[in-house]
Write a structure and sequence with these properties.
The chain contains seven helices and twelve strands. By secondary structure, it is α+β, with helices and mostly antiparallel strands. The chain has two domains: about 5-125, OmpA-like domain (60s Ribosomal Protein L30, Chain: A), CATH 3.30.1330.60; about 135-259, 60s Ribosomal Protein L30, Chain: A. The protein has a four-stranded mixed β-sheet. The chain has a four-stranded mixed β-sheet with strand order 9-12-10-11. Helix 4 (about 135-140) runs parallel beside helix 5.
């Protein structure tokens, strides 16, 4: 299994391409890819940095109504597209997206029907420009004691419930832990806006939510600790002077404990 890949900024012309397809699979009634598919798509990303996505098709199993399954297929397409965009793929707003639902020749194996298939062109390019590190690459290059902010981690207001759009980052962190089996981290929660340290323990609860996600995905708890720092380590003085400063103070970081 390879890391999530690089976000590649391309300023080039291309000589040619070939058309291919990738299948991404889902558990029953879920609209986010299952863990095995997350790992497989991350490996695909690491090998196809120059690919251009040209079409999405969403499918469901035979259970439930036609309308429900078509809506579920559309949500599945949305989440696969989000994963690809978070990994640096530029997807045109006019891309063809077809939510087929259950109106196709179904496999007898229901798990094979719950999928998104996307088509891509493997573009052959003359030159490449500079790359930008992903979270997995940042963790790989970090030293003991380094702290790395988890990008695009969001919670519902004043709670430890993780917003679904945070899942790409969660799975990238999971991949980094799996790719670096000796890695140990402390997950650190921080909040903003309060002069009190953390009256409701939100920063600790949010750090624990990330910890529990990793535990549930079979990361050994001996490799993980978590702690809430409340407002004791702000990036910007409190009270913050803008929404941007609040966002930067309100964060979850991982500290490298051992590699």
């Amino acid at each position: 299994m390879k890391q999530l890949g690089y976000i590649v900024l391309i300023l080039v012309s291309f000589n040619g391409f070939c058309q291919n397809t990738v299948n991404v699979f889902f558990d029953f009634n879920k609209d986010f890819p299952n863990p095995n598919s997350i790992l497989e798509i991350n490996e695909w990303i690491s090998k196809h940095k120059n690919a251009e996505i040209t079409k999405f098709m969403g499918y469901c199993d035979s259970i439930d109504s036609k309308d429900y399954n078509k809506n579920l297929a559309e949500r599945r397409i949305n989440n696969v597209q989000l994963l690809l965009e978070k990994s640096g793929f530029k997807i045109k707003p006019t891309i063809e997206r077809i939510a087929i639902g259950k109106d196709f020749k179904q496999s007898k194996i229901q798990a094979e029907n719950r999928r998104v298939t996307f088509e891509y062109q493997e573009i052959i390019r003359d030159t490449l420009s500079k790359t930008k590190n992903t979270l997995a690459e940042s963790i790989k290059n970090a030293k003991k004691g380094d702290k790395i902010k988890l990008p695009n981690i969001y919670f519902f207001n004043n709670s430890a419930r993780i917003v679904p759009k945070s899942q790409p980052t969660l799975y990238e962190l999971l991949c980094a832990m799996e790719q670096n089996p000796t890695l140990k981290i402390e997950i650190q929660g921080h909040i903003c806006c309060q002069r009190v340290f953390d009256a409701n323990g939100v920063s600790t609860s949010r750090a624990r939510a990330i910890y529990m996600f990793l535990i549930k995905n079979k990361i050994d708890r001996k490799r993980l600790t978590y702690k809430g720092y409340g407002t004791s380590r702000p990036i910007h003085p409190i009270p913050e002077q803008s929404a941007d400063e609040e966002d930067e103070n309100r964060r979850v970081e991982v500290m490298i404990v051992e590699k």
